[in-house]
Specification:
Elements: H1 15-27, H2 34-47, E1 53-56, H3 59-69, E2 77-81, H4 87-93, E3 98-102, H5 113-119, E4 124-127, H6 139-149, E5 152-156, E6 164-165, E7 168-169, E8 176-180, E9 193-196, H7 203-210, E10 214-215, H8 218-221, E11 231-232, H9 243-253, H10 256-274, E12 280-281, E13 295-299, H11 304-312, H12 340-348, E14 349-352, H13 360-371
Parallel strand pairs: 2-3, 2-4, 4-5, 5-8
Antiparallel strand pairs: 1-9, 6-7, 8-9, 10-11, 12-13, 13-14
Helix pairs in contact: 1-9, 2-9, 3-4, 3-7, 10-13
Length: 388
Amino acid sequence: MQQPSVPVFQPHLGVDTVKAVTDAFDVGWIGMGAETRGFESDLQATLGTDRPVVATMTGTSALHLATRFAGVGPGDEVIMPSFNFVADVQAVAWTGATPVFADIDDRTLALDPSRVAEMITPRTRVIMPLHFAGIVGDLDAVYDLARTHRLRVIEDATHALGSTHGGRPIGSFGDITCFSFDPVKIITSLDGGAVVLPAGADVAALHRLRLLGIDKDTTERYRNRRAWDYDVLDTGFRDHMTNINAAIGRSQLRRLDEFVANRRRDARAYNEAFAGLDWLAVPRTDFAAVGPFIYTVRVAAGRRAALIDHLRTRGIATGIHFLPCHAKTFCRSFPRGPMDVTDRVSAEILTLPLWSSMPRDVRDRVIEAVVTFEPARPVATPGARARS
């Protein structure tokens, strides 16, 4: 009998999630309301912080709202990795500002602070690092640069819920942090995101940006009813999270520790199984500080396509995170520094299946398929990543 295919991503949607949805429907109010506020409070508790949390429609909308909140606009520049999803680029471009690409570190796959420093100009307003695959790079150096040049930092933590830095959860410190809860993340709200602001920030301003510039106090915003007596103070967007999405997110947040533990276990099993393969490099981390959103390997040049085909014939899907933004038509005109590392890593990187609740037999099937791959000829050892 043919085995079922193994997707790269598979969200865990259990009976608790189904109950959360039906309970939210029973309330009779599916727009932004009490569940939305509850999700924001739950995320604060998860992060162990009292910093303001604002739930959004998507991770991309979180990045866009954060960029607007930071005062970014026409004539400004935002430094980010090209080794990323295009959401960051679009979030900045919609403000009228210019994305600027800096190269990544070959070992952490995070922004290389020395390359960021080379790209800072009088027009630079924000540094936007990505915590790729949940692995945090040299974040302290990024913040040092920001302080020196009086810049804002917007952390793209869309991969990093459950990750820590210096023993503190990502999102519990620093400047502005953005999360994503789309269908492929560690937890999902079907789609959704969140912006975490510094303590004392003007959260009311972000609330107005999130919902069409409408000015209402916090209590009124989260009532399960529509208010008609409101003012509009500024431009804004319809980027709020609904009660339905929030209810799903709350049910998932309650299982975050379990999901992260499962992913760490399976990522460690992959690392151990692949450690002896000279044509493949694994993340050199014990994952203790990592909430592993994805598990990636680097395959020696010229062997990735063959490995993808080998796995496909065995019913195992793969992904590529990421092909570089600077190679995409829309992004080619944006300023960039040398992209040597980005280009090399993008040619080697391959994403293997990793789920929040992956059965052991599925994980072992992936391992067996990878270790039985035989390159046609000896190749150079691919790059590797450092311990996070």
